[in-house]
Design a protein that fits this description.
532 residues, 23 helices, 2 strands, mainly alpha
Length: 532
């Protein structure tokens, strides 16, 4: 008798994303204790605020596996969750978007205008909006991800593809736009201070990166559209609408003329509803614009008038426009949705709207739980200072290698991109890197303005593949909402794997822009060039 060889198939073991964040929290606490015992720290230089000189800063890994550490974790859990920015942004944005969906506005708008677009054109538009959304910090994640999922579902495309498209657009294009925005406000002070260490006459203007960021937007959108449609979309299953077989279907004999009459009446109502929504949208947008105009009666409501420059009044740390932009967009969708509902007679009363709109909130229970555990993990990781230590040591590595020219640019890109995996705040990273990077590049005849753009590009390269990005929870959560196989949730590694083709190509595009611009010597802004 022949002995049959039995092949043992090991089942793949993986944690649910919620469990994974809990495990990571425990690992980080244990790691902090080990690194603290090993006296892991970083000594780096920061530009002094009072004088144009460097002051030494020492940051060591903080041990959380002790009484004080446990006290911090427990006592700050509620605060960490309530201050978790993606949570508030998502809930606020869903209010308006859900009303727009409940009244039928999103469906009518999508079928009338977006269905006419080819698949690449729709992808191009969503990527473009996602990239330029970084004009106002992280609002693109909370608004565009759920909105894209709904639109793709209406258009009979896989909602997961819409989620991926929106997330890739915002994450891998973060920091560039077709206008001057919040990134300039947060980075320029550090660039200027670092440049003054070499030359006090250097002036970094708000428009110093304008030309190169505009071109970057279109190049990233074009290449990104190709990646989404040719490399990512084919790997996702086709959209299949869920059907309800809980009751037997009855065959009704409907009078053809009556059916056609109902169809004509519905189309007439939809057209009227879209006209109402257009009129309402124009009014709301006009009011918002008026609120941004200073020194007019009842104007300037969204400006921080304590700031000296207009850009700081809009995009400063305490600017009302920047802080309230998510609410404004939500309010726009709410008003437009209500106007459509009134015009199209698609809702009966306020109770009908509320009942329909709350269905979206019923779906996000898992995201709220995910955000709770993620907020604790991110808070713990930040408290340990591991990310800051890594960034500081990478900055010191750049200085110690003594590279110049293109090799220096390469090591700067790699160091900032790697540090972004652990420290996702662009301003904090640039505060650490600018005193090293800007003077070294200036000594290699590379302008501080171009150094600032290298920072923006390097930061964007790895934005979408780090779970330490707070908005990653929105992406991961929505992938699981539209994942039909609930027995196999989309884990963190799979979520990252799904966008790896986009990551690889976007890195190539960023490098093409950086080195192409540097070698050709094209202006990166008005009267500003890559070299001094």
């Amino acid at each position: 008798m022949r002995k049959e060889k039995r092949k043992l198939k090991l089942k793949k073991f993986y944690f649910h994303p919620i469990t994974m964040f809990l495990v990571c929290s425990v690992v980080v606490v244990l790691l902090s204790a080990v690194l603290e015992k090993l006296q892991v720290q970083s000594t780096y230089q920061l530009v002094s605020d009072s004088v144009n000189d460097l002051e030494t800063t020492v940051v060591a890994v903080e041990n959380l596996l002790n009484f004080d550490g446990m006290k911090y974790i427990i006592s700050n859990s509620t605060k960490n969750f309530m201050s978790f920015a993606p949570l508030a942004s998502l809930l606020i944005s869903l209010i308006g978007i859900s009303v727009a969906e409940a009244t039928g506005f999103l469906e009518a708008f999508s079928k009338k205008y977006l269905r006419k677009l080819t698949k690449p054109k729709l992808t191009f538009i969503i990527l473009f909006i996602g990239i330029i959304s970084s004009l106002i910090n992280d609002v693109g994640y909370a608004i565009l991800i759920p909105l894209s999922a709904m639109i793709y579902k209406i258009l009979k495309r896989n909602p997961s593809l819409g989620i991926i498209t929106a997330f890739c657009g915002v994450a891998f294009g973060y920091g560039v736009s077709v206008f001057i925005g919040s990134m300039e406000v947060s980075l320029i002070p550090y660039t200027t201070s670092a440049a003054h260490l070499v030359d006090e006459a250097v002036h970094v203007s708000l428009s110093s990166n304008l030309f190169i960021i505009i071109v970057s937007v279109f190049l990233l959108t074009i290449f990104g559209t190709f990646v989404i449609e040719k490399l990512i979309a084919p790997k996702l299953s086709a959209y299949k609408e869920e059907k309800n077989f809980s009751r037997t279907q009855e065959i009704d004999i409907i009078d053809i003329e009556e059916f056609e009459q109902q169809k004509i009446e519905k189309e007439k109502n939809q057209k009227r509803g879209l006209r109402y929504s257009l009129f309402a949208g124009i009014i709301v947008i006009s009011i918002f614009i008026y609120m941004l105009i200073p020194n007019l009666p009842w104007s300037g409501l969204l400006l921080d008038m304590k700031q000296k420059t207009y850009l700081n009044q809009i995009f400063g740390d305490s600017a009302y426009f920047q802080d309230g932009f998510t609410y404004m967009i939500s309010l726009l969708f709410l008003v437009v949705g209500l106007a459509y509902g009134i015009g199209a007679n698609s809702v009966k009363n306020d109770k009908d709207i509320i009942e329909k709109a709350t269905t979206n909130f019923e779906k996000i229970g898992s995201i709220i739980l995910l955000m709770f555990v993620a907020s604790q993990f991110l808070s713990i990781f930040k408290k340990t200072e591991i990310g800051t230590v890594i960034a500081g040591n990478l900055a010191n590595l750049i200085e110690s290698l003594k590279f110049t020219g293109i090799p220096l640019i390469i090591i700067v890109i790699v160091a900032i991109a790697v540090s972004n995996l652990f420290l996702t705040s662009p301003s904090i990273k640039w505060q650490i890197f600018s005193p090293v990077v800007v003077p070294l590049l200036m000594e290699s005849n590379i302008s501080p303005q171009f150094a600032q753009f290298i920072m923006r590009a390097s930061d964007s390269m790895t934005n979408g593949i780090t779970p330490l990005l707070a908005a990653f929870t929105i992406y991961l959560g929505y992938l699981n909402i539209y994942n039909k196989d609930k027995s196999k949730p989309i884990v963190i590694t799979k979520a990252i794997k799904m966008i790896m083709p986009y990551f690889v190509v976007s890195v190539g595009v960023w490098l093409l822009i950086i080195f192409g611009w540097y070698l050709l010597g094209l202006p990166i802004g008005p009267n500003v060039y890559p070299t001094i």
